[in-house]
Amino acid sequence: MVVLSNDEIKCISLFESITGAVAEDCLIEPGRVVFIVKEGHMGRAIGKGGSVINKVREAFKKQVDVFENASTLEGFVRHLFPTVQLKELKILGRDEEKVAQISVSSKDRGAVIGRNGDKIKLARMLLERRYGVKLRLV
Fold first, then answer.
1. Cα atoms in the 13 Å half-sphere on the side-chain side of 34
2. pTM above 0.85, yes or no
3. How many CB atoms within 10 Å of residue 105?
4. 43: containing domain
5. Structurally, how many domains does the chain consist of?
């Protein structure tokens, strides 16, 4: 269970008032705010042509990333990389030792890792925070 700080709760409130989407989690980082929205609410959070998410970015004056929650761990991992086709996704281990292992084509590897490793670091942080699971890219 994720415990939210007062600042995270305030951010969720502002995000929800702008978008109409239900935010289930918020992570505040220097220069960026990350939201996890309820499954099925991604369209509301982004808006037609990105109009809503642009309003959110203006309000926060930071980079804003939004990911959709899922009813399963596997679904959540797939939502962390929406533009990439995962070749393989395995959940290894059990309980506090779980690892989500993903593999992608070599052309998609850069999209998964991101500039300076930012995307993979964020995905690892969110998986650890939400599920207590480590992420491994093979």
1. 18
2. yes
3. 12
4. 6-68
5. 2
